[in-house]
Automatic annotation (TrEMBL):
PANTHER family: ALTRONATE OXIDOREDUCTASE-RELATED (PTHR30524:SF0), MANNITOL-1-PHOSPHATE 5-DEHYDROGENASE (PTHR30524)
GO molecular function: mannitol-1-phosphate 5-dehydrogenase activity
Keywords, in A-Z order: Oxidoreductase
Catalysis: reaction(s): D-mannitol 1-phosphate + NAD(+) = beta-D-fructose 6-phosphate + NADH + H(+)
Organism placement in taxonomy: Bacteria, Bacillati, Bacillota, Bacilli, Bacillales
Name listed for the protein in its UniProt record: Mannitol dehydrogenase N-terminal domain-containing protein
GO biological process terms, semicolon-separated: mannitol catabolic process
Residues of the Mannitol dehydrogenase N-terminal domain: 52-238
A single GO cellular-component term on record: cytosol
Pfam entry (one): Mannitol_dh
InterPro entries: 6-PGluconate_DH-like_C_sf, 6PGD_dom2, Mannitol_DH, Mannitol_DH_N, NAD(P)-bd_dom_sf
Coiled-coil segments: none
Length: 417
C-alpha cells in the first residue's frame, strides 16, 4: 500500500511541475489540481507522516496563498508570526477558513489546517526545534521584516548542513533570492556558519494572488481562485511542493507580472486613495483612473516587448485578466494595503521608474510616462509639499545615475502642473 502511495505521489509531483498559469492566467489543469487535493486528503486521513514546512508570516498572503498551497500539496505547516494574539486564535481553531470569492464550486470556502502557530520571538526554543527538522522554509513577511527572518534562520540553520535546504521567499520583491541570501550571510556569526548558509538554495520567486485579511476581526481570509506562485528553476530545479513549481523563464514572467499587475495596481491605488476611495476594486473599476494611466501602461507594454520579446496579444490578454481580477468586488481589499511604501517603490530599480529608464536606453520618448509619475507623486505625497520639495526628494532618489537624473528632470518639469 505504501509503495503504491509513493508511486502515486511521484506521479503527481512530476506532473505538478507543468502546473502553471497560462496566458490568460487560468490553471493549465484545474482538474489535476482537484486530483492532487483529493489525493492529499486521502493521504492525510490515512495518518501518514506528512513532512513539515515552516512558514514565516501569517498575514494576508501567508494565510491567503502560501499556507493553503503548502497544505494542499500535502505538507504540515508550522506558522510563525510575531503577532501572538493571532497565533493564539490560529491555535485555538487549529487553522482558519479561506474564502475564494470567485470559486463557483460549493460555497467557495476551504478549511486550512495548520500544525501549530508560534512566535519566532516568544517561542524561540520550540521554533528552533521545528527549524532544525525542516528542509524548506517559506516567508511572506514584507521586505522590511526579512532581516529578522534571516537572523532567526541563521541561528539554527547556520549550525546545520545547508545541502538540501531551501528558503522560498514569497514576497513581492525582484531578485528576492539574492537579497535574502545576502541577509543570511550578514547574519552569520562565523565563517563556518557563513559557508553553511551559502549552500542553502534561495530561488527568486513570483507570487500573485489578491488576498485580504480582516484581522483583528478574525483569522479568516478572502482571496481569489487565481494564483501564480513559482520559483526559479536555475536555483531550485524542483521544489518538491506540487503546487509551487519551478519555472525556467522567471525573469521574463516576473517582469510581466511586475509591470502589468503590481505597477498598475499600486499606481491606481495611490490615485484612488487621493480621490477618497476605499477599496482596490473601486480603483480598478474607475474609468477616469484607467484613462489617466493608459499612456503610462502603453509604455510599460512597449518596454516588455523591447526587453523581453513579449508579443502584443499576450500582453493584452494579461492586462485584461489583471484588470478583471483587480475589479473583483468580492475581495474587500482596502487601498491602504496596496498603496504603501511609495518612496521605496519609486526607487530607480523598482516598479515605477525602472521601466522608464529601460525605455530611455532604447531611445523611446518617455514624456507621457514622466507626466504620469509627476501626477502620481503629487497625488500620493503632494499634500502640504511644494513642487520644489518633491523635486528635492526625487533628486535624492534618482540623482545617482545619468539616466536617473534625466528622468528626474522630465518628471520635475511636470510637478507644477
Ligand atoms: N496581500 C496580498 O494580496 C499580496 C501580498 N504580497 C506580498 O506578500 C508579502 C506579505 O504581504 P501581506 O501578507 O500583504 O502583509 P501582511 O502585513 O498582511 O502580513 C505580514 C505578516 O508578517 C508578520 N511578520 C512580520 N515580521 C515577522 C517576523 N519577523 N516573523 C514572522 N512574522 C512576521 C506580521 O505580523 C504579519 O502578520 C509582501 O512581500 C507582499 O509584497 C504579494 C502579492 C499579493
Ligand atoms: O505592496 P507590496 O508589498 O508590493 O504588495 C502588495 C501587492 O499586492 C498587489 O496588490 C497584488 O495583489 C500588488 O499590486 C501590490 O504591490
Amino acid at each position: 500500500m505504501l509503495a503504491r502511495r509513493c508511486r502515486i505521489r511521484l506521479r503527481f509531483v512530476g506532473e505538478g511541475r507543468v502546473l502553471r498559469a497560462d496566458r490568460r492566467g487560468e490553471w493549465s489543469s484545474r482538474h489535476m489540481e482537484q486530483q492532487i487535493t483529493t489525493f492529499v486528503e486521502t493521504e492525510r486521513a490515512s495518518g501518514m507522516n506528512l513532512k513539515t514546512i515552516v512558514h514565516f508570516g501569517a498575514g494576508a498572503l501567508g494565510r491567503g496563498m502560501v499556507v493553503p498551497l503548502l497544505f494542499e500539496s500535502g505538507y504540515e505547516v508550522v506558522v510563525l508570526d510575531t503577532n501572538e494574539e493571532l497565533n493564539r486564535e490560529l491555535n485555538r481553531e487549529g487553522g482558519y477558513r479561506l474564502k475564494l470569492s470567485d470559486d463557483q464550486s460549493g460555497d467557495g470556502e476551504r478549511e486550512i489546517r495548520i500544525r501549530e502557530a508560534l512566535s519566532p520571538v516568544a517561542d524561540r526554543d520550540r521554533v528552533a526545534e521545528y527549524l532544525k527538522s525542516a528542509n524548506v522554509v517559506t516567508t511572506s513577511v514584507r521586505r522590511e521584516n526579512l532581516v529578522h527572518v534571516a537572523r532567526a534562520l541563521a541561528e539554527t540553520w547556520g549550525e546545520l548542513d545547508g545541502e538540501n535546504r531551501m528558503v522560498i521567499c514569497c514576497e513581492n520583491i525582484e531578485n528576492v533570492g539574492s537579497l535574502f541570501r545576502s541577509l543570511l550571510v550578514e547574519a552569520a556569526a562565523s565563517e563556518e556558519q557563513s559557508a553553511r548558509l551559502r549552500r542553502i538554495a534561495v530561488p527568486d520567486t513570483i507570487v500573485d494572488r489578491i488576498c485580504t485579511a480582516n484581522w483583528p476581526e478574525g483569522t479568516n481570509v478572502v482571496a481569489e481562485t487565481f494564483h501564480e506562485c513559482s520559483v526559479d528553476a536555475n536555483e531550485a530545479p524542483q521544489t518538491g511542493i506540487t503546487l509551487i513549481p519551478s519555472v525556467a523563464r522567471i525573469e521574463r514572467d516576473f517582469a510581466r507580472k511586475r509591470l502589468l499587475l503590481n505597477t498598475y495596481a499600486d499606481a491606481i491605488s495611490f490615485l484612488a486613495k487621493g480621490e477618497g476611495k476605499t477599496y482596490l476594486f473601486e480603483a480598478a473599476r474607475s474609468d477616469d483612473i484607467n484613462r489617466m494611466i493608459e499612456p503610462y501602461m502603453a509604455l510599460l507594454q512597449e518596454m516588455l516587448k523591447l526587453e523581453y520579446d513579449c508579443d502584443s496579444s499576450e500582453l493584452q490578454e494579461w492586462r485584461s485578466k489583471y484588470k478583471s481580477r483587480l475589479s473583483n468586488s468580492g475581495i474587500p481589499r482596502e487601498l491602504d494595503t496596496v498603496a504603501r511604501n511609495l518612496w521605496a517603490k519609486l526607487d530607480l530599480n523598482e516598479r515605477f521608474a525602472w521601466p522608464l529608464i529601460k525605455l530611455q536606453e532604447h531611445g523611446v520618448d518617455i514624456g507621457e510616462g514622466a507626466k504620469f509619475l509627476a501626477k502620481l507623486v503629487r497625488t500620493a505625497d503632494g499634500e502640504g509639499q511644494s513642487a520644489a520639495e518633491l523635486q528635492a526628494k526625487l533628486e535624492g532618489l534618482w540623482g545617482t545615475t545619468p539616466a536617473g537624473r534625466k528622468l528626474c528632470e522630465l518628471v520635475s518639469e511636470r510637478l507644477g502642473e
